[in-house]
Amino acid sequence: MAVRRALVVFIVALVAAGLGALLLHVLAAGGWTLPKAMMLLAFAGTAPWTGLCVANGVVGFVILVFGAEPIPPPLPSPASRERGKGAEGDAPPHIAIALTIRNEDMRAVLQPMGRLLRDLDRSGVGHAFAVFVLSDTQDQPAAAEEEQAVAAFRAADRAPERIRYRRRTGNDGFKAGNIMDFLDHHAEGFELMLTLDADSAMSADAVMRLVRAMRADASLGIVQHLTVGRPASLCSTVIRCWNVPLDGCRWSTGWV
Questions:
Q1: Which of 12, 28, 169, 226 is least surrounded by CB atoms within 10 angstroms?
Q2: Which domain holds residue 67?
Q3: Bridge partner list, 164
Q4: What angle do CA 19, 21, 22 make, to 5 degrees?
Q5: Whether 154 and 200 share a structural domain
Q6: pLDDT digits (tens, 9 = 90+) for 155-166
């Protein structure tokens, strides 16, 4: 691991220095001005992150292509899963699903959520989850339609009390402020929180893997899965949907 980290540091330094030298050569033409100096300074602040992305990608590619053994899933390991079990064994804790919305097509939002809840119920863990639809919609007619859609969705669920709707009158802090308001006023009694965007779609297996990972290691604060885009018709979006899981797997494998 020490050699691997030293290699990462070397790649980061090489990429940052190389890109910095190229930018310096370009900006130096015609003399220096204050905007040029600010541009160089701004680049210097982000160059290490660019280098780290390159290093993770290169290391991950080498491991995936030339590694002698498959890379095991990092979380949760069997040993850490045993350490993460509470007195209730594998029983999940109380988990809040925070679904953030603002001026959304509620049919597109609630259909994936309904599938997730039914999937969790079939897996026998649906009782541990509560859904909080956190709205930042400011337009009153749109908010009224939104609230009606959630009410109908709630009434159709097998356990309506687990679905709750909250709309802020202001959107201070935007999405981050929306989630913080939920944590400050509505999150009492929940051990974990799963945050979803309006266009998110997850399976019960994916959710429970995140839950097991969080419970397996008390030092973890956030666990994030690799993202895969939904099917689309635009060429650029299709390319991105195809690229993200491949690039994400390589990048995360090389992470140190």
A1: 169
A2: 2-72+248-253
A3: 132
A4: 65
A5: yes
A6: 999 999 999 999
